[in-house]
Specification:
Order of helices and strands: HHHHHHHHHHHHH
Keywords: Ion transport, Iron, Iron transport, Membrane, Mitochondrion, Mitochondrion inner membrane, Repeat, Transmembrane, Transmembrane helix, Transport
Radius of gyration: 21 Å
Membrane topology: Multi-pass membrane protein
Function: Mitochondrial iron transporter that specifically mediates iron uptake in developing erythroid cells, thereby playing an essential role in heme biosynthesis.
CATH topology: Mitochondrial carrier fold
Catalytic activity: Fe(2+)(in) = Fe(2+)(out)
Family: Belongs to the mitochondrial carrier (TC 2.A.29) family.
Structural class: mainly alpha
Number of helices: 13
Distance between the termini: 39 Å
C-alpha cells in the first residue's frame, strides 16, 4: 500500500522570463503547486479519495500476489516464481476472480483514508507554514503535517488491510468481507484489526521520507519549473515508489505476518495464540527465513508500487492543475 508524499506543496518555481508574462507564469505555478487558496477542504478530500481508490484498485491483483509471496511457509500449491506466473496459476486453479478477493474492502477503506489524509495534510500544512515561515512554504511544516496525516490514514486503512490480506491468502477460510470481520472479531478481539498498526506506521515513516526525497529530486531535474507535466509526474512517481517499496520490504513482510497470523508458520515454531508486536514479528521472520525472508515478495511489491504511485501522483497533480486553472479562469 502506497502512501502519498508528505510534502505535496513544494516550493514555487522561478519565473521563466522577465516582464508581465513571467509574473503571470509565476502566479500560475504558485497556485498550481499549493492548490487555490480559496479551495474548500472538500476539494482536497475528493481529489485524495479518487487518487487513493484508483491507486489501490487498479493494481490490486498484483497486491494479492505480493501478499501470497510474503508467506513464510506457503502451501506447495501456492509457491510462485514470478508475478505473472502467480496470477496465471491463481486464475487457472482457483477461479478468475480470485486475484480480486478483498478489493471491495480496500475501496471502502482507501476512499475515506485518503480523503482524511489530504484534508488533515492541507489544513495542518497551511497553519504550520504560517507559524514557521509566514508567506512561504516550510518543509518542516510539510513534514509534520504529513506525519500527522499518516496517523489518521493508517488508523482507517489498518482494519481494511487486515481483512484484505486474510482474504488474499491461499485457502483462506473466509468467503466474504463481513464474514471475515465477524470471525476475526469473535476469535481474536477488536485489537486484531490494529495488531500491525505500529509496524505500519514504522514502515510509512521511512517510506514517506524516501518517497518524498526521490520524487522531489527527480522533479527538480525533470520538471524544474514545477509546471503541470504528466510525464514527469508519472516517471518521478514510479521511480520514487519503486525505491521506497524495495527499501521498506522487510517491514512490509512483518506487517503481513501480523495481519495474517500465518498458522502453519507460527505452529512450526510452537507459537500459540496470536503473534503481536514488531519485535516478535522480526524475530519470527528471521527464524523462519533468515535474512532472505525479509525480502520475500520484493519483486511483486516493486511491480505493484511503481504504477500505483505513478497513478496516485498523476491523478492528484491533475486535480491540482484542474482546480487551479478553474480559479485562474474565474479571476
Amino acid at each position: 500500500r502506497m502512501e502519498l508524499s508528505c510534502a505535496m506543496g513544494g516550493s514555487a518555481a522561478a519565473p521563466p522570463g522577465p516582464g508581465p508574462p513571467a509574473a503571470a507564469g509565476l502566479m500560475e505555478v504558485e497556485e498550481y503547486e499549493s492548490l487555490p487558496s480559496g479551495a474548500a477542504l472538500g476539494t482536497h478530500m475528493v481529489a485524495g479519495a479518487v487518487a487513493g481508490i484508483m491507486e489501490h484498485t487498479i493494481m490490486y491483483p498484483v497486491d494479492s500476489v505480493k501478499t501470497r509471496m510474503q508467506s513464510l511457509q506457503p502451501d506447495p500449491k501456492a509457491q510462485y516464481r514470478s508475478v505473472y506466473g502467480a496470477l496465471k496459476k491463481m486464475v487457472q486453479t482457483e477461479g478468475f476472480w480470485t486475484p480480486l478477493r478483498g478489493v471491495n474492502v480496500t475501496m471502502l477503506g482507501a476512499g475515506p483514508a485518503h480523503a482524511m489524509y489530504f484534508a488533515c495534510y492541507e489544513k495542518m500544512k497551511k497553519s504550520l507554514s504560517d507559524i514557521f515561515q509566514p508567506g512561504g512554504n516550510s518543509h518542516l511544516a510539510n513534514g509534520i503535517a504529513g506525519s500527522v496525516a499518516t496517523l489518521l490514514h493508517d488508523a482507517v486503512m489498518n482494519p481494511a488491510e487486515v481483512v484484505k490480506q486474510r482474504l488474499q491468502m491461499f485457502n483462506s477460510p473466509h468467503t466474504s468481507v463481513l464474514g471475515c470481520v465477524r470471525t476475526v472479531h469473535r476469535t481474536e478481539g477488536f485489537g486484531a484489526f490494529y495488531r500491525s498498526y505500529t509496524t505500519q506506521l514504522t514502515m510509512n515513516v521511512p517510506f514517506q521520507a524516501i518517497h518524498f526525497i526521490t520524487y522531489e529530486f527527480l522533479q527538480e531535474h525533470l520538471n524544474p519549473h514545477r509546471q503541470y507535466n504528466p510525464r514527469s509526474h508519472i516517471v518521478a512517481g514510479a521511480v520514487a515508489g519503486a525505491v521506497a517499496a524495495a527499501a521498506t520490504t522487510p517491514l512490509d513482510v512483518c506487517k503481513t505476518l501480523l495481519n495474517t497470523q500465518e498458522n502453519v508458520a507460527l505452529s512450526s515454531l510452537n507459537i500459540r495464540g496470536q503473534l503481536s508486536g514488531m519485535a516478535n514479528a522480526f524475530s519470527t521472520v528471521y527464524q523462519l527465513g533468515g535474512l532472505p525472508g525479509f525480502f520475500r515478495g520484493v519483486q511483486a511489491r516493486v511491480i505493484y508500487q511503481m504504477p500505483s504511485t505513478a497513478i496516485s501522483w498523476s491523478v492528484y497533480e491533475f486535480f491540482k492543475y484542474f482546480l487551479s486553472q478553474r480559479t485562474l479562469d474565474k479571476k
